[in-house]
Prior knowledge:
- Helices cover 67% and strands 2% of the residues.
- Strands 1-2 form a two-stranded parallel ribbon.
- The chain has helices at 2-28, 50-62, 73-103, 123-140, 144-152, 155-189, 195-205, 208-213, 226-234, and strands spanning 105-106, 193-194.
Amino acid sequence: MTALLVLTFLFFAGSIIGWGIELFWRRFFSKNNPEKKWINPGFLTGPYLPLYGLSLCLLFALSFIDVSFVESKWLQKLLLFILMAFAITAMEFIAGLIFIKGMKIKLWDYSKNWLNIHGIICPQYSFYWVILSGAYYFLVHPRILEWLYWFTNHLSFSFVVGFFYGVFTIDLCYTFQISTKIREYAKENKLEIRYENLKESIRKRNEEFEERKRFFFALKSNHLPLKDILREIFER
């Protein structure tokens, strides 16, 4: 039961924190956002990224790996962080392939990065995972049980987490409904839809006021049906 509560809390926290990290990364550091606009990242509509939630759960599980066969303490930590980064990179690769092969959608694109594999993973972002693994191990992991104790003793916050999962489930259904339409169009026209490019094209169709109002609905447009927008974008 304790393990389930830990994973429930970690997925909740990781999904939201990861969304925040991606939001600021795209706003201030991403080369794909030269206009420096606030961009709602990720596949879903709401302010959460499930991949980060799953990654935080994975980091928690991997932090218990015994690497004592390495004599040096700092080498033990380095090896552990590399293993964590490798596991998350593998999960990222599998998730990317599932969407590309199953949904005909490319959620992210590292095609321009050095030594990338199918544009899904690359050494640069695996290195970032090593850094984030170290940050998790030293800053988060030692406090997890303390936070869990606080979580289980504050029913009001438990309600917030429960509300998160309810909204998250509805969001999944909503987004997969839209993704099904995108997949149908992609299959009909033998295309691979780059999700970020699609969202950017739709955003550019809306006026500034509409962009603010639809910050959490980047794939929705009042001007044309989604299928017509896809046709217009890819038939230019």
